[in-house]
């Protein structure tokens, strides 16, 4: 028998058994015969069947005949698993699922595999109100499990170390939630992870996202760790900042221009307790396939919005450059955007407006103008007044 296949099957068995013990048979997922079947894989089973079993085991979003992504654009949506974990948390707090999904289109929820950002925000806000918890997103993030991230969660779980896990996050984050862009960079001896939402969003979305990353990493590492500093774009009062700092193990500051986690670069080589190279390779293939299918159902306008949101310098985002990245001619891009009832100029303006509103007051106006791609501050001031009806200074005072 091929050694790689044997290791792969063994990895399935060990992972299932470990997860069953962890869950204490509380989760119906682990009582299902579909999942336990993988613990009895015979040596003669084909590699295709093994991959199919893993696909089921890890809640991959590509079950045959079970997914139809063509009905809607995937921008600003979340995977159903990530959304469902909010409902499970609320049930543990005494709030029934029916009550939780009432503010959303509950009737449609069972029919789709992605949930819109607006619906997600409504459920988080509903949960915060029902539990009287101003840090609902933070407490929700503390309870994150690998399964909540779907196939990406299990891919990360089987990574060798934190560096490999971060690379998986940067590449496949859209599978979990296409509501923002994660960026990673080095600053000397420090590593910095930023998260920039596509749209202005609520504090609970931000708190859950940033807290969940740390909670999951801590669960997978073989030793306790704490960041050096955490910045959040949402506001925090002194008591809230103190609670977050106690759990994160470092200063946490709100009302910042970026959602950012800063930690020692040396952490990147720390090993994960469940590292499994064969399982990681298989899950990476599944993730690649899932990502391709997800991206195929982005409209061209959405693809460009994502590219613009991920760009550090909008001044470099000329139409011809963007068309080149998309392997299209400028005319093709213009024609297809017209079919989407928009234009490249409009998409660029939308991104500039979003950044201007989010960053106003956090940067000098001249620096903000450059980041938005304006050669002169005067041109930025004129554009800002056209967008919002007042000058940047008056807008900042008013807000």
Automatic annotation (TrEMBL):
The keyword Transcription regulation applies. SUPFAM superfamilies: Homeodomain-like (SSF46689). GO terms for molecular function: DNA-binding transcription factor activity; transcription cis-regulatory region binding. Keywords: DNA-binding, Transcription, Transcription regulation. GO terms for cellular component: cytosol. Transmembrane segments: none annotated. Residues 302-398 form the HTH araC/xylS-type domain. Pfam families: Arabinose_bd, HTH_18. This is AraC family transcriptional regulator.
